[in-house]
């Protein structure tokens, strides 16, 4: 299996680098070992729990939060001198957020390429319009404005997996932030794997090759058995 060989190659590379000194990359797999990627060792790993609470707005003691802990795996990496989960939505240093989510029957029935595009922030025109109308009705200024699409690719992977990769700009707090998001639905339609890369726009342009390398390492692994 191609993805299995790829993971073995990643492990071998990590072992070789460790033997020579500081490894060049963090090699990461999710809790169930089905999604893998790598980030440069200069990134610091963060506890993603506060970020999950921020994104879900669930009370930590609620049944919804307990179910989320069972169905959701996530991690984050930050290259800032003082790493913080808040840098996901605004930083001049690269930030990486990865999550793998087991889908309920209802979620599997509703998943689409456009829902993948809108996984974290409004990307499709319909969702951006709905977001803008919502904040205006509430009498607030939009936190995310001046959307600029940069890339939109549909992905077809092995074993029936499919997904999208989108890149776009948003103005947040007076700064232009670039986001690069890859979302993959496995062939059985049971889990969604997401990689979200973020950095201030000039940072992203300057380090585009590094971001492409991180995003290019993001894939599904079919384990034997």
Radius of gyration from CA coordinates:
18 Å
Q: Ranges with pLDDT <50 over ≥5 residues? A: none
**Class from helix and strand fractions:** alpha+beta
Average pLDDT score? 87
Please state the overall shape, judged from the principal axes of the Cα atoms.
globular
Q: What is the distance, rounded to the nearest whole angstrom, between the alpha carbons of the first and last residues?
A: 12 Å
Largest sheet: 7 strands, antiparallel
Q: What's the total number of strands?
A: 10
User: What is the spatial order of strands in the main beta sheet?
Assistant: 3-4-5-9-8-7-6
How much helicity do the residues have? 25-40%
Tally of contiguous helical segments:
8
Strand content: 25-35%
Provide the succession of SSEs. HEEEHHEEHHHEEEEHHE
Folded structure, characterized:
The protein has 225 residues and is of the alpha+beta class. It has helices at residues 2-20, 49-56, 63-71, 105-110, 113-117, 125-137, 201-206, 208-216, and strands at residues 25-29, 35-40, 44-46, 72-78, 95-102, 145-156, 162-172, 175-185, 191-200, 219-220. The strands form two sheets. A seven-stranded antiparallel β-sheet has the order 3-4-5-9-8-7-6. Strands 1-2-10 form a three-stranded antiparallel β-sheet. Strand 6 (145-156) and strand 7 form a beta hairpin. The protein is globular, with a radius of gyration of 18 Å. 28% of the residues are buried. The model has no long low-confidence stretch (mean pLDDT 87).
């Amino acid at each position: 299996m191609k993805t299995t060989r790829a993971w073995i190659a990643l492990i071998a590379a990590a072992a070789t680098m460790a033997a020579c000194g500081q490894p060049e990359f963090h090699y990461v797999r999710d809790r169930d070992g089905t999604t893998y990627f790598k980030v440069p060792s200069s990134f610091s790993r963060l506890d993603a729990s506060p970020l999950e609470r921020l994104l879900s707005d669930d009370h930590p003691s609620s049944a919804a939060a307990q179910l989320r802990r069972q169905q959701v795996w996530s991690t984050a990496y930050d290259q800032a001198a003082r790493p913080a989960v808040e840098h996901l939505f605004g930083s001049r240093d690269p930030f990486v957020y990865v999550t793998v989510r087991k889908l309920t029957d209802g979620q599997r029935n509703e998943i689409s390429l456009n829902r993948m595009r809108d996984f974290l922030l409004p990307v499709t025109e319909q969702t951006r319009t709905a977001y803008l109308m919502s904040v205006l009705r509430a009498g607030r200024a939009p936190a995310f404005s001046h959307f600029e699409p940069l890339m939109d690719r549909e992905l077809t992977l092995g074993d029936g997996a499919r997904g999208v990769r989108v890149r776009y700009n948003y103005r947040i707090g007076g700064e232009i932030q670039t986001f690069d998001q890859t979302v993959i639905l496995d062939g059985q339609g049971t889990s969604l794997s997401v990689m979200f890369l973020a950095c201030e726009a000039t940072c992203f342009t300057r380090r585009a090759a590094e971001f492409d390398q991180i995003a290019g390492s993001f894939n599904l692994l079919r384990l034997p058995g």
